[in-house]
Amino acid sequence: MTVQGWILILVFTGILLALTRPVGMWLHALYEGRRTPLHVALGPVERGFYALSGIDPDEQQSWRRYAVHMLLFNAVLMLLTYAVLRLQGVLPFNPQGLAAPSEHLSFNTAVSFTTNTNWQSYAGESTMSNLSQMLALTIHNFLSAATGIALAFALFRGFARRQSKTIGNFWADVTRVTLYLLLPLCIVYAIFLIASGVPQTLAATADVSTLEGVKQTLALGPVASQEAIKMLGTNGGGFFNVNSAHPYENPTALTNLVQMLSIFVIGFGLTWCFGKAVGNTRQGWAILAAMVILFLAGTTVAYWAESAGNPVLHQLGVPGANMEGKEVRFGAAASALFAVVTTAASCGAVNAMHDSFTALGGLVPIFNMQLGEVVVGGVGAGIYGSLLFAILAVFVAGLMVGRTPEYVGKKIEAREVKLSVLAIAVLPLIILGFTAISSVLPAGLALPLNKGPHGFSEILYTFTSAVANNGSAFAGVSANTPYYNGMIGVAMWIGRFFIIVPMLAIAGSLAAKKYTPAGAGSFPTTGGLWVGLLVGIILILGGLTFLPGLALGPIADHLAMIRGQLF
Amino acid sequence: MTQDITSALRPAIVMTILFALLLGLAYPLALTGIGQAVFPKQANGSLISEKGKVIGSDVVGQAFTSERYFHTRSSAAGKGYDGLASSGSNLGPTAQPLADRVKADVAAAHASAPGTIVPADLVTASASGLDPDLSPEAALFQVPRVAKVRGLPVEKVRALVMNTIQHPMLGFVGEERVNVLALNRALDAAR
């Protein structure tokens, strides 16, 4: 570890903390449906969209209606993507003449982008036409992110409203977040990326004759426009196979820093927005504090492991940090930091190959995802996931002091606790279940590239990433098979919507309750004690279930690595 | 419930179409227009032309295997630096094939510089398979070989490396690095 590396990590965190309030204020304006300066230009677009679709943005929806409208919209979007992919061969903007992806790959990809996972069983540059990248994939990067933020708004309203049957209007939330937040930011961001060397063209390739006289063909395309929303919306689906490690996706150390910041920035802002929505911004800062503690702990372990390097290579006379699967312009610090940020935040973009990380360096990303992507988390999904843990934390605190638990002015009763447990239990059930099945079936064992415990880690990583809607991979795996495209597709769908529906039910149930002011017996949910309790609950409920699996994979791999045992 | 579903049909279909037009076509095409107009070089891949021929890109690496040039890093992209097949090796820390490959590369590096410590990036595969850079140590490691093959003074080749080093922004954003294509072009020019 170097001083320079730590300065990067601390400056990175500092910038985000400074942006939390301004971004949160902007989000809060959208949450309340207030007018922003951007309404002058984009207001007519918003009203036009409502008029053509027959939407009354002021209609207040029950949680059931909110859920049904959200699900149906996502289903139609998924069908559009499936259709565009299957028709790729006959649609325009396909200069390479690429054929349509197979049925199972198209299914997997459509689910993947709808659920904000962006798992990719394919290599972008040799599979997707420019039209597919734009029309089938980029729109999901916007709308799955906007859906996530809308759902977070719905849950905030559950806490904020009193004796109300409704939690907002799904269409108004999605449209406002897209038009007044994501789209304008992405336009500025994409222009910055183009200026820094990220291509934006309708040409698919450029031919180069190298200094040694060899022909090299470089894949190009409309990369910058997709790159911007890929990071900001915590989607993570790369234009190219190696994602943000590709020099055309992430050409400089500065673009790398901005990409990392853009993964986290909306997630940080949403914690402030939550605090404001429930009338006490300290509530938001407390949630954020728990997130930042877990984030910095993960970063410390991953950075230490990667800079300590691989003893196997040290034995061969190659000292220093682990550079296998890393780019020189990023080095150990920015690669480890990126890996932690992207898995803490449900993004899944990578700037280094996690498969080639040291055993413990690779454990941190897996563990981050297994916690349920609540360390900042995906846009929207991170904060609503955290609030489910907060409900369980006040419940546990209530058991200890023998009082009915309360959180931000709402009594937490059996229904909310049951639904929270239901949502959180989905993760271990599917991750461990699918990993176990795949570790014994021949079709499942066809996945790993590596042998030994690292091969098991590859299967575990795959389903962890799918259910947590992350999308990063131990990328040596061969996932483009009917079995894996199907299994991963199902895992991603369950991981997204089997958490969302109970969460919306909680929102509806909370909205209907009356306000209970904090009394002398209430457990305070703003101080250090609360932050400590929340971190503990996240680690125990979120993490403990996975320790046996981690022992078979990365921990066994670590023990083999320090003994120099190879597979 | 039925009423919830029927009321969602029209918005779901029409909003999908409208957003597809806005986000899937208008947004990327408008940015393509802006990029091509304002930053045409970068928008088309930062290509470098010399004597009317495109010889590479400022940001993407290319293979150098001749003894006359500074070598780029090991690449798992296709058969090496394949611009249509970016990839890392994805070998895990305890993979026998990784140890075998590194062992062979260390032996090859030692052929021209026996007994020296080999910089890590010189014998490891990059993440993209298209890494344009080397660490200064990995470039300096190759100076004696390149100077010998070219018949140039070691000090002169060393100076070329030192002049090509890019430093981290503000001292902490990025790593010290040497763009290998830029270095090898400077080497050709120094003939």
UniProtKB/TrEMBL annotation, chain A:
Membrane topology qualifier: Multi-pass membrane protein
Signal peptide: none
Transmembrane portions of the chain: 6-27, 66-85, 134-156, 177-198, 253-273, 285-305, 330-350, 357-376, 382-401, 421-447, 459-478, 490-510, 530-553
Keywords linked to the UniProt accession: Cell membrane, Ion transport, Membrane, Potassium, Potassium transport, Transmembrane, Transmembrane helix, Transport
The protein's role, per its UniProt record: Part of the high-affinity ATP-driven potassium transport (or Kdp) system, which catalyzes the hydrolysis of ATP coupled with the electrogenic transport of potassium into the cytoplasm. This subunit binds the extracellular potassium ions and delivers the ions to the membrane domain of KdpB through an intramembrane tunnel.
Subunit structure comment from the entry: The system is composed of three essential subunits: KdpA, KdpB and KdpC.
Record-stated family: Belongs to the KdpA family.
Name recorded for this polypeptide: Potassium-transporting ATPase potassium-binding subunit
Organism of this sequence: Sphingomonas immobilis
Gene name of this polypeptide: kdpA
From TrEMBL, chain B:
Keyword Nucleus: no
Membrane topology summary: Single-pass membrane protein
Pfam families: KdpC
Subcellular location: Cell membrane
Key words, A-Z: ATP-binding, Cell membrane, Ion transport, Membrane, Nucleotide-binding, Potassium, Potassium transport, Transmembrane, Transmembrane helix, Transport
HAMAP family associated with the record: KdpC
Family indicated by similarity: Belongs to the KdpC family.
NCBIfam families (UniProt xref): kdpC, PRK00315.1
Protein name (database record): Potassium-transporting ATPase KdpC subunit
Source organism of this protein record: Sphingomonas immobilis
Name of encoding gene: kdpC
